[in-house]
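Recall from the previous lesson that a structure prediction takes nothing but the amino acid sequence as input. Here we apply that procedure to Lipoprotein-releasing system ATP-binding protein from Salipiger thiooxidans. The sequence below is the only information supplied.
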Amino acid sequence: MNEEILRLEGIEKRYNPGRPNEVAVLRGADLTVGRGEVVALVAPSGAGKSTLLHIAGLLDTADRGEVAIAGEALGAASDRRRTILRRQEVGFVYQFHHLLPEFTALENIVLPQLANGTARAAAEERARALLASVGVESRAEHRPAALSGGEQQRVAFCRAMANTPKLLLADEPTGNLDPATSDTVFGALMSLVRETGLCAVIATHNLELASRMDRQVRLDEGRLVPV
Ligand SMILES: Nc1ncnc2c1ncn2[C@@H]1O[C@H](COP(=O)(O)OP(=O)(O)OP(=O)(O)O)[C@@H](O)[C@H]1O
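The prediction returns the following tokens.
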């Protein structure tokens, strides 16, 4: 395997522990993904895909188990360290774009870079290059509401890539698009990922899209098994 970018080991997660509505979602999930590798995460609705991605992306914590990003084990890391790593090394894409409605496409990609300490001119240059790489450079000055669903999602990919993360996590990134648009937009995402040599974990219900990734894993009773 290439350099290890993401390692999940023995991840356990319950919601509402000790209550009648307790649900043990993850029960010892293991996954290791290397640089340049794209893994499809497939599972029925409610199996825990979002929970797993949130833990992998340091948005949530596991009850047990270890998360390591780019070789750094985060079990004992401070909240501050987790926030820095999340901002610098992880990009997220969701089913719905979550772009800031009052800002243009360009600004939506510039802002995370400014928050990360990049100078404005460099941030704008990178944002324009990213938009061009997914074919929406002509939409740079539009606000999200003036973009089609497929364009919004491409801009969301660019935002996820804004700070040149090592790890991209995507939760049903084309789940809200019609099949033809989903296909084109997924193609744009894959080219962007391939060009940058990113490591990616992409949750999808779409088995055809899953088959276009390097390998597939399935969540089965809280554990990850190869497909
Ligand atoms: N904050 C929470 N509190 C209680 N239960 C939760 C919480 N978040 C998720 N769950 C439950 O945990 C289980 C896994 O949820 P999760 O969203 O991770 O699944 P998923 O595989 O991503 O589903 P989908 O494909 O429908 O998005 C579900 O049964 C869900 O109801």
